[in-house]
Amino acid sequence: MEKPIVIAVMAVPCLLLTNCFYLNLKNNDRPGTLMQLLLLVRYKFMLLILKNLIKTFLFINLFFFLALDSSGQIAQKQVLSIGDTVPESLWNLSHNVYKEGKIVNHSIKPYRGKLLILDFWSTWCGPCIRSLPELDSIGKMFGDKVQVVLVTKNTNEILSKFLKNNDYAKGVKLPFILNDSILNSHFPHRSISHQIFIDSKGIVRAITGINGAKIKNIQQIVNGNPIDFPLKNDFAPRSNPNEE
């Protein structure tokens, strides 16, 4: 796309210079052959400018059309709901993971094949903080069948300071995904805690609030039983417009 623009820009001063020569020859009554040659050159330059401007216009329109089309497709694929299968690309994406004082880059793929609970939280969320010990104990209780991963938009500096000073967070061995935007875009929400349950087959089985990750509820999913606990949908229309 840059080449037609460069050609068009370079041709403009050449056209102006040629036009100046043409006017000078015309005023001085120079031989007609030279004037005809300059007219031909000017015509060629004008044709070149017009052709490259058309190319540039078409390229720009095609670029924006493809960009809008592809972004629309991506947006549709990003949001995952109950019943959706987690795409392979999401399993393989690398994240900044904080665990037991160290930061490593790895994907959520090692947790595939077990019940994966993604808990979206933040250091300013009181109920989220108070639930940390319980979430940690769930991970220990179910062993290899369940993996809880804590997902936050907080930076390493904020999280490290929080884990050092907060009594609820001390001793928690769960992995923390830091600076997250990817998982948040796949599982959008308006409130936290926001918990996503992905079963051993990679299917989103439940989306809940803070009370979702309870032993009874987790056991239902692990055993493949129907879910009978409350689910969460932050974007569902309210039955009562005045409801908070």
What are its keywords?
Glutaredoxin, elongated, 8 helices, alpha/beta, 2 domains, single chain, seven-stranded mixed sheet, 244 residues
Could you please describe the fold and organization of this structure?
Helix 1 (2-27) packs antiparallel against helix 2 (32-78). The protein has helices at 2-27, 32-78, 88-92, 126-130, 132-142, 156-165, 182-186, 215-222, and strands at residues 95-99, 102-106, 115-120, 146-151, 176-177, 194-198, 204-208. It is 48% helix and 14% strand. It has 244 residues and is of the alpha/beta class. The chain is built from 8 helices and 7 strands, in the order H-H-H-E-E-E-H-H-E-H-E-H-E-E-H. The protein folds into 2 domains: 2-78; 88-222, Glutaredoxin, CATH 3.40.30. A 7-stranded mixed β-sheet has the order 2-1-5-4-3-6-7, with helices on one face.
